[in-house]
Amino acid sequence: MSRITPTFAALRARGEAAFVPYFTAGDPDLATTRELVLAAVDLGADLIELGVPFSDPMADGPVLQRAAARALAGGVTLHHVLGLVADLRREISVPVVLFGYYNPLFRYGVDAIARDAAAAGADGFICVDLPFEEAADLRAAAGRAGMDLIALLAPTTPPARIRTIAGRASGFLYFVSVLGVTGARDTLPPELPGLVSRVRDATDLPIGVGFGVQRAEQAAWIAGFADAVVVGSAIGRVIEEDGRRASGRVAELIGSLRSAMRGVRRARAG
Predict the structure, then answer these.
(1) Angle at the Cα of 219 from the Cα atoms of 14 and 27, rounded to 5 degrees
(2) Bridge partners of 228?
(3) What is the distance between the alpha carbons of residues 267 and 270, in angstroms, rounded to a whole number?
């Protein structure tokens, strides 16, 4: 079992939703990514998504596309990302999920990447361009290594397909809040609670919501009906603007998001 399941179980027992920040590994460099991840954990991050840079990140909006391009220009490879995970694992205990695209994993070899990622201390994969029907090899390799392959669902995923995907998923389900690519948005769909409720009817797995979250009030709203709030582009934009000096503003943003989420589920349950 990975660290993901007990982490969500502990949060559920406390009546809390998980805060999940996303960082592109190597933007602006690996040392800064390490510093930012450690600071995020200190500020209350419950799980870390670490982006594996890729040359054609088709699910990512402009901010994260540029982040991946900068990391690749700096020479960051999947091997470097695994080294970063191993380094972080010596200092943090929260789950780490590798977020990326199938080509680097396929070229590395699905059995090899699952084995080496687990040995480094990673807990799961999110492979955004790998359809459910074609994910059996990676799912099996991850399972043998004690890792989770996190499945994604969209607002347009029909109920029957939700049940099929949820029945083979592990760790948690990642619900994409909007149609289109990643990127901070001023507004989120008002029907989002109902869409998440439809997924909850099909599974006992935790449900995380990402794509579009940028403000504390949005994070608090999602924390009231989902099990995790994922924030990526809003953090990436600060890193893009401040580079190696981003730690202060990133900490301020993460602190405000995490603080807004605390106690929301308990208050609504009461």
Answers:
(1) 110
(2) 18, 208
(3) 5
Tell me the per-residue pLDDT of 187-198, one tens digit each, with 9 for 90 and over.
Answer: 677 899 999 999
pLDDT tens, residue by residue, 74-90 = 999 999 999 999 999 99
Q: Which residue among the candidates 16, 46, 60, 116 is catalytic per the annotation?
A: 60
**Residue 60 designated active-site:** yes
Domains and their CATH numbers in the chain: 4-269 (3.20.20.70)
Residue length of the chain: 270
In this prediction, residue 216 carries a pLDDT of: 93
Catalytic status, residue 133:
no
Residue type, 63: V
Contacts of residue 17, defined as CB under 8 A and 6 or more positions apart, other chains included, come to 11, 222, 223, 226, 227, 228, 229, 261, 264, 265
Query: Which entry of 27, 46, 49, 123 is annotated as an active-site residue?
Result: 49
Question: What average pLDDT does range 23-34 have in this prediction?
Answer: 98
Residue range 52-67: average pLDDT? 90
Is the C-alpha dihedral spanning 175, 156, 236, 238 positive or negative?
Answer: negative
